[in-house]
């Protein structure tokens, strides 16, 4: 897979040399190239921004500079591997594991990192009109100073899904179960007693079925406490009687085939 990142802060992406993504690059699974947007400026001051039409605070990134950069990096939509343009922005669709899985299946992704108040809207309009796939993604409901950290997040999320990247494929299989709708259960390791805190007895019991049940109860209880949106989205047909008992203790009931919170 090839990934190009265009940014005015290429050093921000240095973290991608480390860890899993670094290994994927060394193993030849990921061809990652980071570009300085200012390489496509033409003026002496290497200007990438200007004042917003219509007024308002801050500066906007110029379409002409971005246009030249993307012409070079994205290629043509009818190339063998046309780039899928990914633009981090707080006004994007929220980036999820489903998007990471889809991007891991792409041959070529180009991430355009904005700064200031963002990139002139005509840049993504033109890429779409030229036939490129374009995804504008937010990594969550908070505001960063630019797209670089969001790019790191997304590249790590899809980079670790590339075949051959994760050392232990079992960890990905278990994870996709969790992604089927519940948060993970709490985990423990040695020592069994630490600072007066004991690992739950059931985990030391060797009783596999009880351990499985305990972990599922924990996952259900913490999902109910932290992510009611995920409980409401559960398929009731996939829940057993013990699940429904735990959920009832957490204030959920089945109504017309859907889970809903019990009114207090
Ligand atoms: C300028 O919060 B963010 C984000 C913020 C940004 C830009 C891109 C992404 C560009 N500010 O995800």
TrEMBL record:
<keyword id="KW-0949">S-adenosyl-L-methionine</keyword>
<dbReference type="InterPro" id="IPR029026">
    <property type="entry name" value="tRNA_m1G_MTases_N"/>
</dbReference>
<dbReference type="InterPro" id="IPR016009">
    <property type="entry name" value="tRNA_MeTrfase_TRMD/TRM10"/>
</dbReference>
<dbReference type="InterPro" id="IPR023148">
    <property type="entry name" value="tRNA_m1G_MeTrfase_C_sf"/>
</dbReference>
<keyword id="KW-0489">Methyltransferase</keyword>
<comment type="function">
    <text>Specifically methylates guanosine-37 in various tRNAs.</text>
</comment>
<feature type="domain" description="tRNA methyltransferase TRMD/TRM10-type">
    <location>
        <begin position="1"/>
        <end position="231"/>
    </location>
</feature>
<keyword id="KW-0819">tRNA processing</keyword>
<keyword id="KW-0963">Cytoplasm</keyword>
<dbReference type="InterPro" id="IPR002649">
    <property type="entry name" value="tRNA_m1G_MeTrfase_TrmD"/>
</dbReference>
<dbReference type="Pfam" id="PF01746">
    <property type="entry name" value="tRNA_m1G_MT"/>
</dbReference>
<comment type="subunit">
    <text>Homodimer.</text>
</comment>
<dbReference type="InterPro" id="IPR029028">
    <property type="entry name" value="Alpha/beta_knot_MTases"/>
</dbReference>
<comment type="similarity">
    <text>Belongs to the RNA methyltransferase TrmD family.</text>
</comment>
<protein>
    <recommendedName>
        <fullName>tRNA (guanine-N(1)-)-methyltransferase</fullName>
        <ecNumber>2.1.1.228</ecNumber>
    </recommendedName>
</protein>
<keyword id="KW-0808">Transferase</keyword>
<feature type="binding site">
    <location>
        <begin position="139"/>
        <end position="144"/>
    </location>
    <ligand>
        <name>S-adenosyl-L-methionine</name>
    </ligand>
</feature>
<feature type="binding site">
    <location>
        <position position="114"/>
    </location>
    <ligand>
        <name>S-adenosyl-L-methionine</name>
    </ligand>
</feature>
């Amino acid at each position: 897979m090839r990934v190009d990142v265009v940014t005015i802060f290429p050093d921000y992406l240095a973290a991608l040399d480390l860890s899993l993504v670094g290994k994927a690059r060394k193993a030849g699974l990921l061809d990652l190239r980071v570009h300085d947007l200012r390489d496509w400026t033409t003026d002496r001051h290497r200007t990438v921004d200007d004042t917003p039409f219509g007024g308002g605070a801050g500066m906007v990134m110029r379409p002409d500079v971005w246009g030249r950069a993307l012409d070079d990096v994205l290629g043509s939509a009818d190339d063998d591997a046309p780039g899928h343009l990914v633009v981090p922005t707080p006004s994007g669709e929220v980036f999820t594991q489903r998007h990471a899985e889809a991007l891991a299946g792409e041959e070529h992704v180009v991430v355009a990192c904005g700064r200031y108040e963002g990139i002139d809207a005509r840049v993504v309009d033109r890429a779409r009109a030229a036939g490129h796939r374009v995804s504008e993604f937010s990594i969550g409901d908070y505001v960063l100073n630019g797209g670089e950290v969001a790019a790191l997040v997304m590249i790590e999320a899809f980079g670790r899904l590339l075949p051959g990247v994760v050392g232990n494929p079992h960890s990905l299989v278990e994870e996709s179960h969790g992604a089927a709708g519940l948060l993970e259960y709490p985990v423990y390791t040695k020592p069994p007693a630490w600072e007066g805190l004991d690992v739950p007895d059931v985990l030391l019991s060797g009783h596999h079925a009880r351990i499985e049940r305990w972990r599922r109860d924990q996952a259900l209880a913490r999902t109910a406490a932290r992510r009611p949106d995920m409980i409401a989205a559960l398929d009731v047909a996939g829940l057993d009687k013990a699940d429904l008992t735990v959920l009832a203790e957490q204030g959920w009931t089945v109504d017309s085939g859907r889970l809903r919170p019990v009114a207090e």
